[in-house]
């Protein structure tokens, strides 16, 4: 979804910081590479940062 929106990892991390989620670009890269799982608490935050509904993350 990040790539579909034309966002770099850095740009998405900046959005995350603006909504109060302190995440590094490295952590985001690990999530995207499925090396690190995203927690239940983080799902709403990533949806908000991507400006999508939570349901869209699971489609």
TrEMBL record:
Gene3D superfamilies: lambda repressor-like DNA-binding domains (1.10.260.40). Pfam families: HTH_3. InterPro entries: Cro/C1-type_HTH (IPR001387), Lambda_DNA-bd_dom_sf (IPR010982). Residues 1-57 form the HTH cro/C1-type domain. This is Helix-turn-helix domain-containing protein. GO terms for molecular function: DNA binding. SUPFAM superfamilies: lambda repressor-like DNA-binding domains.
């Amino acid at each position: 979804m990040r790539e579909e929106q034309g966002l770099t990892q850095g740009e998405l991390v900046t959005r995350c910081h603006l909504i109060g989620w302190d995440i590094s670009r490295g952590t985001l890269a690990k999530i995207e590479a499925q090396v690190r799982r995203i927690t239940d608490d983080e799902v709403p935050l990533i949806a908000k940062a991507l400006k999508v509904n939570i349901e869209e993350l699971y489609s």
